[in-house]
């Protein structure tokens, strides 16, 4: 039996295969908390109900020992998960010795160095289950709304957003790079299938040491033909609202374990507010920021903006000077582009970047040359504007930043099983 299915087996004798999360004994009764990956169950061992050797073995169980434990399942609202086992038999597979992560406080560096074991803790268990629901919700929404999964390559011959943030490798004698984004390839598949998305790891070689940055992260990138930047925002707000609703519906227990106040999440509903970059600059200046028009926003600025709203907020029409070459120029103000970043509330900043792509061959070629990019490397991308070009838009949602916001975590290092940070690649 898996622990999360205990309600289906009340009154029956079942066996749990798992690990000792904690144990205590008092005289003639011992209590063993057993985890099996699906949940934690309190197992009650009464001295008169088992052999003396079994009771003694239970009293000496150590944290993270692997066991199979058999008994009758009972409803018990005071027990974790609302059920407990009255034990009849126990088999110890391995008695763990000197488990390094104990109930006392440990430093972050120690826990990160023992990430392979830290994942067994109740808090990390809850976060990973919430992450899994977020990932499933992402796929469900897109699959149910006409998007087709297209796998973009991880190895690429060119950069998506700038060569300075690429990890390079040798590809049979020619340089290749780990993908920053599947977007350029998505644009090709969108011209074949209309609505597509890719979902996988992305890599950024920026030497960023902040609570929001990983060097390897997961990103979902939808792309839509015949879609302008505003329609693109419509999809994003429906998408994010659906994800939050699914977590609230399916992960209440896990949210309670990490002590997440869900009231801010329950306010997430469409439509999301939309402000221009110009309005955002004024808002920041009124809050005391020295930001000037033409400056990019960092984490501090994003936090200041997002703290003004209870729902995610779009900041639209950033200056062309610091945005990617493929973004379409804003006809209302040629100094800006038709783009929008979605900032999560509660100070979490950007979780989505997106916008409309330049669909005119001549204008895109001018941008490629202006950026000093190798024209030959982007010939296939330019071809998309020669053969049936259409207005099209897309966006990328960072999974780890979304998990951090929904779980209200202080750092992205807890959002992925094995985080890759600037100075951390072990384990």
Helix-strand layout with pairing:
Blueprint: E1 13-26, E2 29-35, E3 40-46, H1 52-59, E4 66-75, E5 83-94, H2 108-113, H3 115-118, H4 122-144, E6 148-149, E7 155-156, E8 168-171, E9 174-178, H5 183-193, E10 195-203, E11 216-225, H6 229-250, H7 252-257, H8 263-266, E12 274-276, H9 277-286, H10 299-306, E13 313-316, E14 339-344, E15 349-356, H11 361-370, H12 379-383, E16 392-398, H13 399-407
Parallel strand pairs: 3-5, 6-10, 12-13
Antiparallel strand pairs: 1-2, 1-4, 2-3, 4-5, 7-9, 8-9, 10-11, 11-16, 13-14, 14-15, 15-16
Helix pairs in contact: 4-6, 4-13
Question: What does this protein look like?
Answer:
This protein is α+β, with helices and mostly antiparallel strands. The protein folds into 2 domains: 3-94, OB fold (Dihydrolipoamide Acetyltransferase, E2P) (Beta Barrel), CATH 2.40.50; 115-414, 2-Layer Sandwich (BirA Bifunctional Protein, domain 2). The chain contains 13 helices and 16 strands. It has helices spanning 52-59, 108-113, 115-118, 122-144, 183-193, 229-250, 252-257, 263-266, 277-286, 299-306, 361-370, 379-383, 399-407, and strands at 13-26, 29-35, 40-46, 66-75, 83-94, 148-149, 155-156, 168-171, 174-178, 195-203, 216-225, 274-276, 313-316, 339-344, 349-356, 392-398. An 8-stranded mixed sheet has the order 6-10-11-16-15-14-13-12, with helices on both faces. Strands 1-2-3-5-4 form a 5-stranded mixed barrel. A hairpin with a 2-residue loop joins strand 8 (168-171) and strand 9. Helix 4 (122-144) crosses helix 6 (229-250) and helix 4 packs across helix 13 (399-407). The longest helix is centred in the N-terminal third of the chain and has 23 residues, at 122-144. It is elongated and about 85 Å long. It starts with 12 loop residues before the first strand and ends in a 20-residue tail after the last helix.
């Amino acid at each position: 039996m898996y622990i999360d299915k205990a309600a289906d087996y009340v009154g029956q004798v079942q066996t749990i295969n798992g690990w000792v999360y904690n144990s205590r004994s008092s005289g003639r009764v011992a209590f063993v908390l057993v985890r099996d990956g699906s949940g934690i169950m309190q197992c009650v061992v009464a001295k008169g109900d088992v052999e003396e050797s079994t009771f003694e073995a239970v009293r000496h169980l150590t944290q993270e020992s692997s066991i199979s434990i058999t008994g009758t399942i009972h409803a018990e609202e005071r027990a974790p998960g609302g059920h407990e086992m009255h034990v009849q038999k126990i088999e110890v597979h391995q008695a763990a010795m000197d488990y390094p992560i104990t109930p006392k406080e440990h430093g972050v560096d120690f826990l990160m160095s023992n990430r392979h074991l830290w994942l067994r803790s109740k808090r990390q268990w809850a976060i990973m289950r919430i992450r899994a629901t977020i990932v499933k919700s992402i796929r469900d929404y897109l699959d149910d709304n006409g998007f087709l999964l297209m796998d973009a390559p991880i190895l690429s011959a060119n950069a998506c957003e700038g060569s300075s943030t690429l990890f390079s490798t040798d590809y049979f004698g020619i340089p290749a790079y780990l993908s920053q984004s599947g977007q350029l390839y998505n644009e090709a598949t969108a011209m074949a299938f209309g609505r597509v998305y890719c979902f996988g790891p992305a890599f950024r070689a920026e030497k960023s040491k902040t609570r929001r940055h990983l060097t390897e992260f997961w990103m979902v990138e939808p792309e839509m033909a015949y879609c302008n930047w505003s329609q693109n925002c419509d999809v994003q707000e429906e998408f994010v609202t659906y994800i939050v609703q699914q977590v609230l519906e399916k992960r209440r227990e896990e949210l309670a374990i990490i002590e997440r106040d869900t009231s801010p999440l329950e306010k997430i509903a469409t439509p999301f507010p939309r402000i221009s970059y110009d309005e955002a600059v004024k808002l920041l200046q009124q809050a005391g920021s020295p930001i000037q028009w033409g400056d990019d926003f960092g984490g501090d600025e994003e936090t200041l903006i997002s703290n003004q709203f209870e729902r995610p907020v779009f900041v639209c029409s950033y200056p062309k000077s610091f945005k990617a070459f493929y973004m379409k120029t804003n006809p209302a103000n040629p100094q800006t582009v038709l783009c929008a970043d979605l900032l999560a509330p509660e100070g979490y900043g950007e979780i989505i970047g997106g916008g409309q792509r330049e669909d005119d061959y001549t204008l895109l070629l001018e941008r490629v040359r202006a950026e000093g990019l190798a024209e030959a490397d982007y010939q296939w991308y330019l071809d998309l504007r020669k053969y049936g070009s259409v207005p099209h838009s897309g966006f990328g949602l960072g999974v780890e930043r979304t998990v951090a916001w929904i779980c209200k975590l202080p750092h992205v290092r807890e959002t992925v099983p094995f985080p890759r940070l600037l100075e951390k690649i072990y384990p």
